[in-house]
């Protein structure tokens, strides 16, 4: 009966399995709650999160107690389905093809005419048009027009749920009871209009994510047994050779092994300038090879590619709800009882059943629930197009009010491609000895400084040893056994006390990073590395200051003098000599003061601090697993200009959210008051309730438009 495919992802941890189930038929934020409740009620379900835009439920469950068919049953019981996305159209609705649009058109025309007639009667323009229509005919119109809504209301009632539509239905019934079938029909008509408005709004928000998903590559040309074969991307294995022809989409993440191409990476980085790719270059799935072809060695496939992870995180962004949304959701919970109370009072005090019906009808609006997520999704979708991966509304909210910025130095402020500028042998060693030992010890380190040391040795054509026992000490350096000698390379923390020569202080004052090389505990030389400041940093910092941020602080594991030189250049304060855990401590210290902290890092040695911050922003996240995972906002392009940009997006989003909420609240309260006082007649109440969703959509759509960061100076 249920055409269930295997869930998209499965992950089993300690007896608990996480599965993803596609959910169809959710049109409004209330639906999410219904589905979540239905699944959560199953024994064996530990955690469930339903996403309206990604149309899926992520369920953490005990596989021995609950299975997919039980979940499908629960979902269906709640009035939704677990079917995977329909391929093509039709088939699912009984009225497919031609009949449906014609019926819709007839309904719209009829509804509009009826509305005009009823309003006309109300103003006394013409009289008794509708009264001449026989009563049973009127009833049939109401029932036929409202069938889908009534069906849902009845289904909900059977499950003991009261929805906003329940109230409206009661309102329509009240109109019928007092013999105003035309008014009831108008109410039903606008109920359907409101429904469409809501579905349209949700669909618009969903599209930002869907458009992104649509860019995923479908097939790849792999080399197997000496021949090229076109296969679905899912079948490509890591390590296989993939051939990309000019103009084609690159199907996997990989390293170019032959050929040359200019690659348009806009899908991932948002940068329209193509980059050159040749042997050794890393390329990303969903980017396009223009002018030239490539042969690649596959490193990541499908969901593991940078693009796959971006999609996944954008889809999951809904889970990280902003606090304002929680407040709005809470308000929604009180809203229904509030409306019922007002309606009861109206009935008791004014004894006017039509005014009571107007209260019930005007109140209906999912808008409170939509006000926040629509705006957040618009911004997250727009961000993804610009090379900004925003993992949830919560982080936009925090960023909008953040007041402290902490910045990692190496790889974040600097390009992270340091070069060894000085080799200083000490205690009788030769420069070459020092380099050989250091480079051999650094052979397996992934730190940018390690690469600098290896490059320096390579340039001088020095032979390296294979280290035995290699150990990386985060934020300090490395220790390895090289040719029977214990070699350490790293910051001053690595070497025993004792005053280093004067020249060391001079090098540090030039802003250079010093690596102390020791053999068997005794210092044998010093290497100085200099890294280049990213050229766009000063302008970006100025723009951040222009946003009113006063507290900008440099955090580094580097030495005091180097840090001071950099800090002075950028006019920021600094803390030097920090271990990765010290950086977390600084974040926590500010948080304890009630401040909202932004941490900007590159994911190397600062991932925990990124995660601890209210908003962790990672540079150069394309291709870096740690940075993408740890950060809340990841820059898929190494460009500091994106930071003030996302900041402004955040502030603009919060302005839109507040306007959405304020507008909905004011609109609904005004409507309720006017209806209760008998000023707003039932027909107008019906028309009025279908509008706020569109207002919210229009207001939020502003966020989809791209925006350039304002850079001071
Ligand atoms: P930052 O905080 O500026 O990003 P890190 O925390 O990555 O810097 O490193 C701090 C310091 O530790 C470096 O300045 C360097 O002295 C030392 N260090 C870390 N890793 C290594 C390594 N692999 N080789 C040599 N020195 C290292
Ligand atoms: Mg760093």
Describe the structure.
Among the domains are: 3-77, Alpha-Beta Plaits, CATH 3.30.70; 237-300, Distorted Sandwich (Calcium-transporting ATPase, cytoplasmic transduction domain A); 403-414 and 533-613, 3-Layer(aba) Sandwich (Rossmann fold); 419-530, Calcium-transporting ATPase, cytoplasmic domain N. Helix content is 47%, strand content 19%. It contains 24 helices and 26 strands. The strands form five sheets. Strands 14-26-25-24-15-22-23 form a seven-stranded mixed sheet, with helices on both faces. The termini are far apart. Adenosine-5'-diphosphate binds next to helix 13, helix 15, strand 18, strand 19 and strand 20.
| Radius of gyration (Å) | 32 Å
- The CATH topology of the domain at 419-530 comes to Calcium-transporting ATPase, cytoplasmic domain N
Number of strands: 26
What is the beta-strand fraction? 15-25%
| CATH class annotation of the domain at 419-530 | Alpha Beta
Query: Outline, from the CA principal axes?
Result: elongated
Q: Helicity range of the residues?
A: 40-55%
Low-confidence stretches: 1-11, 86-95, 708-713
Span between N and C termini? 65 Å
Average pLDDT confidence is 86
The largest sheet is: 7 strands, mixed
Provide the structure class. Answer: alpha+beta
CATH architecture of the domain at 419-530: 3-Layer(aba) Sandwich
Which small-molecule species are bound to the chains here?
A: adenosine-5'-diphosphate, magnesium ion
Largest sheet: spatial strand order: 14-26-25-24-15-22-23
Full CATH superfamily name of the domain at 419-530: Calcium-transporting ATPase, cytoplasmic domain N
> What is the count of DSSP helices, taking H or I runs of 4+ residues?
24
């Amino acid at each position: 009966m249920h055409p269930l495919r295997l869930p998209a992802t499965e992950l089993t941890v300690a007896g608990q399995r996480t599965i993803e189930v596609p959910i169809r038929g959710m049109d409004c934020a209330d639906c999410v709650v219904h589905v979540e409740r239905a699944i959560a009620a199953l024994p064996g379900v530990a955690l469930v999160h339903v996403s309206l835009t990604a149309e899926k439920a992520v369920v953490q469950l005990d596989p021995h107690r609950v299975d997919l068919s039980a979940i499908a049953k629960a979902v269906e019981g709640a009035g939704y389905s677990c079917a995977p996305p329909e391929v093509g159209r039709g088939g699912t609705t009984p009225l497919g093809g031609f009949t449906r649009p014609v019926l819709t058109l007839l309904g719209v025309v009829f509804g509009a005419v009826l509305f005009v007639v009823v309003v006309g009667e109300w103003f006394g323009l013409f009289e008794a048009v509708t009264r001449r229509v026989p009563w049973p005919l009127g009833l049939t119109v109401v029932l036929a027009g409202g069938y889908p809504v009534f069906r849902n209301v009845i289904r909900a009632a059977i499950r003991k749920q009261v929805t906003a539509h329940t109230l409206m239905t009661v309102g329509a019934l009240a109109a019928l009871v007092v013999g105003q079938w035309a008014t009831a029909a108008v109410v039903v008509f606008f109920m359907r209009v409101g429904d469409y408005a809501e579905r349209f709004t949700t669909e618009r928000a969903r599209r930002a994510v869907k458009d992104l998903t649509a860019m995923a590559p479908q097939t790849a040309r792999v080399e197997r047994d000496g021949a090229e074969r076109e296969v679905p991307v899912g079948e490509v294995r890591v390590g296989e050779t993939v051939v990309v022809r000019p103009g084609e989409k690159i199907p996997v993440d990989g390293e170019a092994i032959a050929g040359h191409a200019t690659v348009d990476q806009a899908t991932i980085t948002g940068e329209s300038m193509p980059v050159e790719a040749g042997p050794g270059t890393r390329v990303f799935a969903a980017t396009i090879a223009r002018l030239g072809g490539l042969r690649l060695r596959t490193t990541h496939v499908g969901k593991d590619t940078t693009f796959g992870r971006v999609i996944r995180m954008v889809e999951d962004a809904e889970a990280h709800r902003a606090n304002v949304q929680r407040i709005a959701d809470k308000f929604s919970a009180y809203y229904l009882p509030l409306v019922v109370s007002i309606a009861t009072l109206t009935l008791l005090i004014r004894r006017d059943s039509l005014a009571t019906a107007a209260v019930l009808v005007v109140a209906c609006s999912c808008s409170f629930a939509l006000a926040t997520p629509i705006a957040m999704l618009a911004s997250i979708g727009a961000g993804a197009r610009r090379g900004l991966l925003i993992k949830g509304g919560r982080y936009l909210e925090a960023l909008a009010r953040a007041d402290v910025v902490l910045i990692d130095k190496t790889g974040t402020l600097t390009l992270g491609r340091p070069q060894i500028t000085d080799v200083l042998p000490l205690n009788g060693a030769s420069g070459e000895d020092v380099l050989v030992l250091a480079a051999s010890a650094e052979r397996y380190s992934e730190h940018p400084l390690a690469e600098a040391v290896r490059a320096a040795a390579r340039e001088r054509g020095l032979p390296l040893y294979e280290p035995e026992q290699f150990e990386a000490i985060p934020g300090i350096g490395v220790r390895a056994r090289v040719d029977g000698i214990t070699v350490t390379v790293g910051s001053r923390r690595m070497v025993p006390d004792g005053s280093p020569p004067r020249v060391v202080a001079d090098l540090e004052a030039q802003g250079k990073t010093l690596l102390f090389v020791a053999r068997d505990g005794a210092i044998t030389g010093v290497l100085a590395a200099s890294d280049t400041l990213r050229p766009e940093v000063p302008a970006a910092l100025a723009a951040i200051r222009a946003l009113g941020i006063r507290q900008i602080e440099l955090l580094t594991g580097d030495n005091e003098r180097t840090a001071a030189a950099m800090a002075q250049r950028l006019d920021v304060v600094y803390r030097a000599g920090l271990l990765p855990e010290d950086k977390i401590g600084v974040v926590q210290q500010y948080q304890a003061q009630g401040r909202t902290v932004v941490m900007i890092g590159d994911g190397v040695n600062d991932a925990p601090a990124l995660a601890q911050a209210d908003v962790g922003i990672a540079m150069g996240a394309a291709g870096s697993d740690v940075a993408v995972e740890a950060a809340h906002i990841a820059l898929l392009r190494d460009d500091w200009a994106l930071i003030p940009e996302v900041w402004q997006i955040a502030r603009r989003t919060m302005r839109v959210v507040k306007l959405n909420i304020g507008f909905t609240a004011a609109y609904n309260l005004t409507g309720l008051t006017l209806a209760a006082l008998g000023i707003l007649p039932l027909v107008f109440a019906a028309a009025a309730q279908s509008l706020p969703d569109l207002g919210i959509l229009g207001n939020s759509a502003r966020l989809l438009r791209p925006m350039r960061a304002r850079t001071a100076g």
